[in-house]
Amino acid sequence: MTKVKFKLESAGYCEAKQSYVLKGTSGKTIKFYATYGHIEHPIYGHILFDSGYTRRFYEVTKKLPFKLYAKLTKVFVTEKEEAINMLKKKGIDSHEIKYIIISHFHADHIGGLKDFPNAKFICSEDAYNDIRNKKGVLALKKGFIPALMPKDFQARTQLLCFKNKTKKIEGLGKVIDIFEDGSILICQLDGHAKGQIGAIINAEKKIFLISDAAWLKENYANLHLPSHSVRLFFDSWRDFKNSLNRVHKYSKAYPETVIIPCHCEQTYLKLKNTE
Ligand SMILES: [Zn+2]
After folding, report:
1. In CATH, what class is 5-273?
2. Residue-range domain boundaries for the chain
3. Measured in angstroms, how far is the CA atom of residue 55 from the centroid of ligand 1?
4. Ligand 1 centroid from CA 177, angstroms
5. How far is the CA of 273 from the centre of ligand 1 (A)?
């Protein structure tokens, strides 16, 4: 199995109410970091898992109907926090990013796609089919802002289909070994968004990027559900609970794996502080 290097970064954040993220808790405001993974593969080079926010978000939400997105979600991102600039600081040019794995098509995950002209995109066929022709209000209902997509997206994209795959992880279900070397395994985490995927990364410590299958550690560790009102924005509440249960089981079966919900402040700060 090939080992890769992994680092969790964040490109901005938005604010959310804790009572919305954890049912029955106080309504205090919490920070929802827009994290993304930076993977260094010995053969395939620099790879991102999601891309966080960029200041482009402010541009593309100036007009209706997307103005409503910005109204519902207060976003904070500065130039130096954007993935492209964070990588530049590490001496990595945007052209060197070879792949971007897209967990799902919400704005906090695809905000930086346009900044990486050489990247091939990897996402699930179900996720892409769900948004590909959506515009205006129909797109907004999916949390999708078409203007964030590179024009040549389709030509640069590899769509993953789990249908005829047989490789499985006990309790988690089917996985796709994208480079066939055990370095990055992709799994299905439907519910929050149609066709959402997660990734198990074979780094020094094993990492499981679960995207928005849980927002906080508390969600999957104690099966503490979000408030009922979030159902309105989810693709399927039933699938969401199923995915959350599978992540919960995985966390019990593999306690040494670092599980990373994309927006969990506690997980993000803990990783930052142990670097
Ligand atoms: Zn999302």
Report:
1. alpha beta
2. 5-273
3. 18
4. 23
5. 25
